[in-house]
Amino acid sequence: MEEALRAHLAENGGVRALVADRIEWAVRGAAPSIALHLISAPPDTTLAGQSGLVQARVQIDCWADTFLKAKQIGAAVIAALPQRRLVIGEVRFLACTILDIDRGRFGETPNQLHRTRLDVRVATNGL
Predict the structure, then answer these.
(1) Which of helix, strand or coil describes residue 68?
(2) What is the pLDDT of residues 10-21, one digit of tens each?
């Protein structure tokens, strides 16, 4: 799921226009950039046992040198998130749900960075 999600965001024209190819897992690149973090990925369990699906929680940090740019990157990511039944390689995305959006700034002027943090539930077939 991780590489499929990264590749999908990197191929989106709106996201690419704002951050180029600076989208990585667990690494904050030079601003503007996107850092993806897998918070949890528990298997979906029913009364009959494991369903084979995963409800992953992914934190997406959108970094930029201005508040407006970080907000724009966040909006582009939301628009680009895989929708129902999108298949990328062997990964079938069932739904991406925004759980929370938070904005903040880090560091001191002139090196201050702004972040839009998206908490997303990503439901997949578990690959």
Answers:
(1) helix
(2) 999 999 999 999
